[in-house]
């Protein structure tokens, strides 16, 4: 099923591509994005691990780098991206509730179940409290999901992050580490909301010129996220060897259960298969760049490690799950067509 308004795929910033009029070429562009980005981030993480001294003192630059990513996201947005909220308020509200209930709750449960250290537990919970992930729209498209719903939920979850992420983090992670929710609100406003608004305003004023560079923005954002991951990994390189497997297990459980429960929420609400596929990715994929920035600023580089690992893994798992969902959707469509032909012949 092709999305009706393909420019919406410009909405997200790490791996989005313009989906061309040809479905085949659009699939190739999106697959290239979700394939290259995890490899790029993985290479950046390896560089940070092998040469941590090269990134010494860069930790204070992480919020500015995230601001650049969010400004690029604002440049890819138009007022049309908000129309879906008005047209389908119930579905968007369900997506927001599912996202901000399931992922924070899972983060808290996983931290307790695995007995994570306070720093790692706070990092996992913070990932869960972040808004929707920046590759979710493209992955939803690959899964033959409801892209319009995906765009709406992702947009609103990002806009509401300053109001929701800090108090949720205080509630769930406060037992592990002190959380300054007020300072976190300020940081999210400065590094997320204001850059997004600035990008949107620039797009509205200079759209004719911005359109010429839209295709480069996802890759600029991908490179910036990769640098953030390298800085985060370098800052906790000494602790990674002892904690890497445990962190990876926590991330896989967090992401996998989020995808499954997000899909289940869509099914229970009877939103239909395409919308349920969109819900899976809007719940299970997180803005790990924001989580890494906040963890570095408010906790420690070690607390940002789950976000760095999540940044790689959720793109890999998202691409794999999207391919599986797309295959199932095609088979279902084929069976439906075959049954319709049989009924036509019998008539």
UniProtKB/TrEMBL annotation:
Q: Which residues cross the membrane?
A: 29-50, 62-80, 92-114, 120-140, 147-168, 188-206, 218-240, 246-266
Bias (Polar residues) occurs at 15-24
- Compositional bias segments (type: Basic residues): 1-12
Give UniProt keywords alphabetically.
Membrane, Transmembrane, Transmembrane helix
Q: Where in the cell is it found?
A: Membrane
Q: Which Pfam families has this protein been placed in?
A: SBF
Residues annotated as coiled-coil are none
Q: Which residues form the signal peptide?
A: none
Membrane topology of the entry: Multi-pass membrane protein
Main location class: membrane
Q: Where is this region: Disordered?
A: 1-24
What is the protein name stated in its UniProt record? Bile acid:sodium symporter family protein
